[in-house]
Amino acid sequence: MLDIIITSKTRVKILLKFFLNPETKTHIRALASELNESSNAVRLELNRLLEAKMLNSERSSNKILFRVNENHPLYSPVREMIQKHVGVDEIIQNVIRGLGEVKKIYLTGSLAKGLSTEIIDIMLIGNINAHYLVETIEKLQFALSKKIRFVTFTEEESNDKNFDCEDFVLIFEK
Length: 174
What we know:
Blueprint: H1 2-5, H2 9-20, H3 28-35, H4 39-51, E1 55-60, E2 63-68, H5 75-86, H6 88-96, E3 100-108, H7 109-112, E4 119-128, H8 130-144, E5 147-153, H9 155-159, E6 169-173
């Protein structure tokens, strides 16, 4: 859907990268390498997004770092559109109902890094109804035409781990 509205595949990849994980700060070469795109194509799209004020930039030593502008008036609608594109909104809406006491849901894997993929990796924390989760995930995979991989932790198990990093994007918290 998104690639029909936005014809530049590079721009779609950049939007996924920055809007799925708003904490992301990166420079052109790292982004080009991660997205498997040329530096020139990435530079062109970053400049367009800077001109539209959808991204901010800052100098760090000899590099220019880019980050999403969360104060932009279109930030929320674009983020919602990106989440709909990858299916995150469906997971949140459908999985939470009847799932038990969900405390947090994290997006992990390639999508958390802003990379386009056909696999959605999620991590759920709380007292989870495993039977309901499996049934719901199977239905969502069919509806979204994407594979969904998941892992669950109780709150106690999650206390031993650090999920506040770029590889984990918090998408729901109760």
